[in-house]
């Protein structure tokens, strides 16, 4: 594909309709772009996927998991499960067949199946190959499922969460759904559970009643309960060798038990320990260390001794801004990676063999992506914004390269950018212009345009000139001052101004494109184009100004020759 077509296809990703339920962002750099060869039928090939961040909740941990054989991890956002490969961060697979928000997902021991659970109490079991074919679906609990685990032989699954009466934990056969035991002993929501990875099988659970319960089986039945914790017990995990069990709690303590008998062995030392709630814990493969994360914004590596005590061997400090969003809520020790997740959804990948090395940070949006724009400079930078007002920077071929720090974090509906500045509009009547300095936003100024903007466009070669579309007209801005407010007499849905500011194209609710010449503060209609069968959602010029593309809410896109006004 030629450089010209690369640029054109890049331009097509500049704006996504605000109505799309985007949970992940893809760079659609097309192998055969819409502008290429002027043909009617074009094929697109997905090159990279920039995944969203895991869903998080303040005051709660998240329980991520993975598969050491494929070196991939699983996490959830809204109704989707995301599979990310640690050695290929831009290769992402998404399972989106749940009807309700997904809470947890786990690989089966052989890596062939994934069990995922949601807030309605349903568990779906699906294959990791062949388009994620569904094996089974079971209604396991009457409320939200917070954790689930496979038995080491892959024949059973245990799940826990919120339910009616005493139904907070249930174990069942993975193929039939038949229950394999009774799980009495909890009186409140159960936050975590785990299968002992070696025989004899055991199940441990913990939750909001401050209890750690121990079950023998199968069929499983209650054996004993511990109440050494004085606050929510957030996570419980058996060691890979099956000798020990550890629980961590919001009381800042970690307690270690004998995995076979359930008896208490010892605790994590309070020396250099966590000063906030501990949300998650994960064992090293050799069962000699654990990784913990806490609301105190640190992750700690602990050496675990034979007598069941542990001491801190390394503290991993968060490299963020130090705000609430840097609290750590999830972790996983997999192969040579130490993985932590912050409240902002950022995934930090540390090297287990060299934890002092700067971690690789994988971040993304937590809410729907509603705007994309491209900055052409020494290197291409994609900016994306989401409903919550976050603006992220992406570098093609690399992925996430930082979050734009703004003083004002108001919601964003429209976003355009040049190398030196960005312009935004939200859900009020204001248009903002903000100077750019690397990853930081500088001084901001705004103007009230009298109505909520529908679209925003900037003349690339004359960035002081901008076009704002409103319900039934457009506003021309120059140096953030209103040149004119023009009522066009039809319902406006999208607009764009030419790079040199000499022309504007306005799309309507009726699917028509109106082309205007721009002279000073006035617009003169030159042509009306009719091809679309739905409301226009986006219009963009090609970089060489010879063509423009338009798309509608029926998911149809048309490429037009700017001179002849004919479609290709």
From TrEMBL:
Pfam families recorded: WD40
InterPro entries per UniProt: WD40/YVTN_repeat-like_dom_sf, WD40_repeat_CS, WD40_repeat_dom_sf, WD40_rpt
Domain of life assignment: Eukaryota
Protein name, UniProt field: Anaphase-promoting complex subunit 4 WD40 domain-containing protein
Residue spans of the WD repeats: 95-126, 226-267, 271-304, 362-394, 529-568
Organism placement in taxonomy: Eukaryota, Viridiplantae, Streptophyta, Embryophyta, Tracheophyta
GO cellular component labels: cortical actin cytoskeleton
Membrane spanning residue stretches: none
Gene Ontology terms describing biological process: actin filament depolymerization
CDD domains xrefs: WD40
Keywords attached to this entry: Repeat, WD repeat
GO molecular function per UniProt: actin filament binding
